[in-house]
Structures are given as structure tokens and as C-alpha cells.
Specification:
Blueprint lengths: L2 E5 L3 H13 L3 E5 L2 H10 L4 E4 L8 H11 L4 E5 L4 H9 L4 E4 L4 H21 L4 E3 L2 E4 L4 E4 L2 E2 L4 H11 L6 E2 H9 L8 H14 L8 E4 L3 E4 L2
Length: 225
């Protein structure tokens, strides 16, 4: 049974999460205090920590950073703070995922399954699987899936996506991507990167949702969760 620690001070939300996760067969334990949550996270063996940002005594960012100094326990932040700055701060602190409130329980459960599948893949064969939301890329098998469904990519598309997913939340210049994917000696213009980013977006982005690959004006591209 997977063990999930919920650090959430909003009583109704905490109770809702606890009941839903137990209904799905997980062991779920709740605390509404940041300091207590940190102590539990550090002392116990948890498969996942669901972590709010705004907490009494210790904030979520500080808790996540403390966990990362000692453990690799997956952390998913669940918070009403939804600005790009908040997302970047959360992920940079060491969180594996960031889910803004309000959210549908189905999405939370789907993201939890992605985290556990990634863990199981690593434990089974030691293979690295890169993830961005429900998009997974395995360099060894050269398999890409989106929401569990395979995504067919060309060799160049795969190489470009791999470069971006290895550097989630890090801006990569067009020149860096060109050198990584096409090679230092390639006689191609940096505009080819824009063309291939467009190809990728058509294959991995969900309709009506923001693109996973974001352009940074005058620099290049970044993949964000």
C-alpha cells in the first residue's frame, strides 16, 4: 500500500484528500502544521508528500527544500498560488509536480499515478524517465507517452524533446538546442529549432491548454510543468 503524507491546513480540503486517497487504496495521513509535517516527512517512509505552500510555522517551500537535503521522496505541491513565479519557485525548491487549486480529483490521481509509474520504472531497471506533467520520456526505450498513450516522434523531434525535458524550467537558447540536437558542425539556421518546436507542440500539447514548451523572447525555449 502506497503511503501518502498530506500537509494541508485547510481542514475541508485535507479531509477531502484523505478520504479520496483512502478510497483509492492508499494509506493517507494528514497534518495541518508545517513543522509537524516536516518532522513526519523526514522521520517516516513515504511514497509521496502532498504539500500546501501556506502553512503554520513552516512554509511549503522551506519544507520541500529541507526534505531534498536528506530524501528523494516525491513531493507534489497543491496550492491556490498559481502565478508563473510561484510555480517556478515551487519546482526549483525540489517539487516533482505543482497542482494549482481548485483541481479535479481525477487530475490529482492521474498525476499521482504518473509519479508512481516513474518511481516503479526506476526501481525496476534503474532507467531514467523524464517527466513533465503526464508527458513521459524514456531515453533507453526511446518511448514517449502522453497520458499513457504513445507519441510517435521522428529522431530529431525525440532529441529536441529530450533536451527540453532534461532541463525542465531551465531556459535553453536556440543555439544550445541547435548544438545539442543537430551538432556543432550542422550547417542549419537557428530557425529550424522554431520549426521543430512547432512540430512537437502539435504532437504533445492538449487542445485548448497552454503549450508545455514556452518561448522566451529573444532567447529560446523552456519546458514548464
Amino acid at each position: 500500500m502506497k503511503r501518502i503524507l498530506i500537509i494541508e491546513d485547510e481542514i475541508n480540503m485535507a479531509r477531502f484528500l484523505e478520504l479520496e486517497l483512502r478510497h483509492e487504496g492508499f494509506y493517507a495521513f494528514v497534518t495541518g502544521n508545517g513543522q509537524t509535517g516536516l518532522e513526519l516527512a523526514m522521520a517516516g517512509e513515504w511514497d509521496l508528500v502532498l504539500l500546501d505552500l501556506m502553512l503554520p510555522e513552516r512554509g511549503g517551500l522551506e519544507i520541500c527544500r529541507e526534505i531534498r537535503t536528506m530524501k528523494q521522496t516525491p513531493v507534489m505541491m497543491i496550492t491556490a498560488r498559481d502565478s508563473i513565479h510561484d510555480r517556478v519557485s515551487g519546482l526549483d525548491s525540489g517539487a516533482d509536480d505543482y497542482l494549482p487549486k481548485p483541481f479535479a480529483i481525477e487530475e490529482l490521481l492521474a498525476r499521482i499515478r504518473v509519479i508512481f509509474r516513474r518511481q516503479e520504472a526506476v526501481e525496476a531497471g534503474g532507467h531514467i524517465t523524464y517527466a513533465c506533467g503526464d508527458l513521459l520520456l524514456n531515453p533507453d526505450s526511446r518511448l514517449v507517452t502522453k497520458g499513457g498513450n504513445p507519441v510517435e516522434l521522428t529522431k530529431r523531434e525525440f532529441a529536441l524533446l529530450e533536451a527540453l525535458m532534461k532541463n525542465v524550467n531551465r531556459v535553453l537558447s536556440r543555439e544550445t538546442l541547435l548544438d545539442t540536437v543537430w551538432g556543432f558542425e550542422a550547417a542549419v539556421d537557428t530557425n529550424v529549432v522554431d520549426v521543430y518546436v512547432r512540430y512537437l507542440r502539435n504532437k504533445i500539447d492538449a487542445k485548448d491548454n497552454p503549450s508545455l514548451i514556452q518561448a522566451v523572447r529573444g532567447i529560446g525555449y523552456v519546458m514548464r510543468k
